[in-house]
Amino acid sequence: MRMLRLLEKSELGVGELSKALQLPQSTVSRQLKPLLDCGFVDRRTEGTASLCRVATAGMVPPGGELWALARAQFQGLVTAADDDARLATVLAERHRSGSAFFGRVGGEWDQVRRTLFGEHFGADALLALLDPRWTVADLGCGTGEATERIAPYVARVVAIDREPAMLVAARKRLAPLRNVEFREGDLRKLPAKDREFDAAVAMLVLHHVERPEEAVADAGRCLARGGRLLVVDMTLHDRREYLTTMGHLHLGFDRRACEAWARAAGLELARWTRLRPDIEGRGPGLFAALLTRSR
Predict the structure, then answer these.
(1) CA distances from 127 to 122, 185, 197, 210, 237 (A)
(2) Which of 52, 137, 151, 266 is the most exposed place for a label (fewest CB within 10 A)?
């Protein structure tokens, strides 16, 4: 009812309603849906923003009569007066600064950005935080997806895989990149010198290694002082069919496994984080573990 009062006074975006009502944007969005579904509210699009107002053609009976009775009960209440005061401030902001657009789109801003710029620009841009002087190893590089993302931001990437067919595919994919070196070899005995790498990544590969602790130990051998190893893999799961259908040797790993790997390799487990699941994904959960060499 508070929303309807304000939407009768002005056409508003989710962010503006959130400010005027002092409610989370998620709550506003959730409450707007039944109002839209039942014909109490209309919505229109302005550019990439969605704006709402009380149904301009009139509410379907008996909605109009019900709203008239409910609205009368709000007149004179402190809550209504406070809402009106905040609404006046929100509307004034539209005219006071160029930030009004963000108030109007509010909680829909993530979708606006995806519409304009796609899904991956944020993750790629954050890779610019990498040290441009680094040499990074992509362990079990496969077709080179991780290498492709990392290479523009560091001095050199060494892409390593035991499967010649994978390296052929990676070479083709990464042909335009001039700072990538390819090496064939087993992760448990890497074709690399001691302390050669500033960082290494093992992206969804250790569940294919019979003894992953040996792969982590040899990766540790190849890390320079202060180097870091990023392991991304599946959390523990019960999808036993993966053992036969996809050749997995392990049904994921937990934090304790990563801690054991780190101790055996003389590394420190600096961070272990469950990654936010993608609702479009059908696989098990993922984690990211950061192992570091302090000396």
Answers:
(1) 9, 27, 17, 31, 30
(2) 266
